[in-house]
Amino acid sequence: MDIAARIRKAYPPEEAEEYAARRGEVLVKRAHSMYKSHMMDQNESAGVMAAHSLGEPGTQMNMRTFHYAGVANINVTQGLPRLIEIVDARRVPATPSMDIPLVGEIDGGPVDEGVARHIASEIEMTTLLDVASINTDVTNMQLVIVPDARKISDKGITPEDIRDRLNKMKIVRGNVEIDPVNRINIIARSDEPSYKKLQSMYDSIKGTKIKGIDGISRAVLSKSGSGWKIITEGSNLKEVLKVKGVDSEHVMTNSILEVADVLGIEAARNALIREAEGTLGEAGLNVDSRHIMLVADLMTNDGYVKAIGRHGISGKKSSVLARAAFEITAAHLLHAAMVGETDYLEGVTENIIVGQPVTLGTGAVNLEYVPRKREE
């Protein structure tokens, strides 16, 4: 029931309209006062404030790189190293991870543990050595692959799956078959009597992917309300979104550039804000969201994710002195002198360097005093 209906029900008709009007007026005034309180003063140095508001709490963050995320036992980068990773727009994070909620396949409700484990096994990349041991039979010039019955059962893999996968590899050229005596073992024969070829076959097939998604080395279950979610080591957003049973609308990854590639620049901006707020929040630091939003807007306003650094925003400033003040001073000044660049001294850094007031705050206006002429 909406507010207007509640008012009509609670008050007589002649009073309801008047009360609703008063209530609406109060609501509009409150919204207007909140809007005005969030506005900035003219010529306020928004960028400097945002930089200080992020930089100062950053000095209080811990320098430890890893911690365990809840019960999932997944290593993730936290604290200052993670904040630096975010603003540097690293292509691959030090510890890529995904948070994958699950939904029921029929009614959209929570899945049970058995189904969740099956989905996790479909996502986690399984190599041959994860589920089998490889023995070298030098006498017969062959490799004997002995799958672990419990492991292949848990992963939903059969010996036929392993055989078919290995037969697609160039180095074995279809010379893989199931042992006719022991039906679980698999034999890979060398097509030439060469120890070097046998060793080469072993090195090639031991890391063969049997099942799962590239880039995801581990997937563990974590309780989420009444259902389950999967936490991963490694990230592959594009492929995970295709997996049946995954709540694709709420899948998260900590790889911001991957979000930009798969979902676009607006999603990457939101991911930047979420990751920065999460990192600061876990350290117990309360930073206004608008400072983080300004940084995220600056990093994404060109349609791609730029780093805040020498190869990104700071290295592409229009001011020569601002670029020189950041890094590689001599190279910037030399290049500017060679091409005849002009610095119009419009920013904060360059005005401080030359010793004049910055064009922000009180420095944005010029006051002139015109003395009144004394009347004769």
Give the topology.
Elements: H1 3-10, H2 13-37, H3 46-58, E1 66-68, E2 75-77, H4 79-87, E3 97-101, H5 113-123, E4 126-127, H6 128-131, E5 132-137, E6 142-147, H7 149-155, H8 159-167, E7 176-178, E8 186-189, H9 195-205, E9 209-211, E10 218-224, E11 227-233, H10 237-240, E12 252-253, H11 256-263, H12 265-282, H13 289-300, H14 320-326, H15 329-339, H16 348-354
Summary of the model, kept short:
It contains 16 helices and twelve strands.
What does this structure look like?
Among the domains are: 35 residues; 86 residues, 2-Layer Sandwich (Gyrase A, domain 2), CATH 3.30.1360; 48 residues, DNA polymerase, domain 1. Helix content is 44%, strand content 14%. It is α+β, with helices and mostly antiparallel strands and 376 residues long. The mean pLDDT is 83. Helix 3 crosses helix 13, helix 11 runs antiparallel to helix 12 and helix 14 packs across helix 16. A hairpin with a 6-residue loop joins strand 1 and strand 2. It contains 16 helices and twelve strands. The longest helix is centred in the N-terminal third of the chain and has 25 residues. It is flat and about 125 Å long. The strands form four sheets. Strands 10-11-3-12 form a four-stranded antiparallel beta sheet. Strands 5-6-8-7 form a four-stranded antiparallel beta sheet.
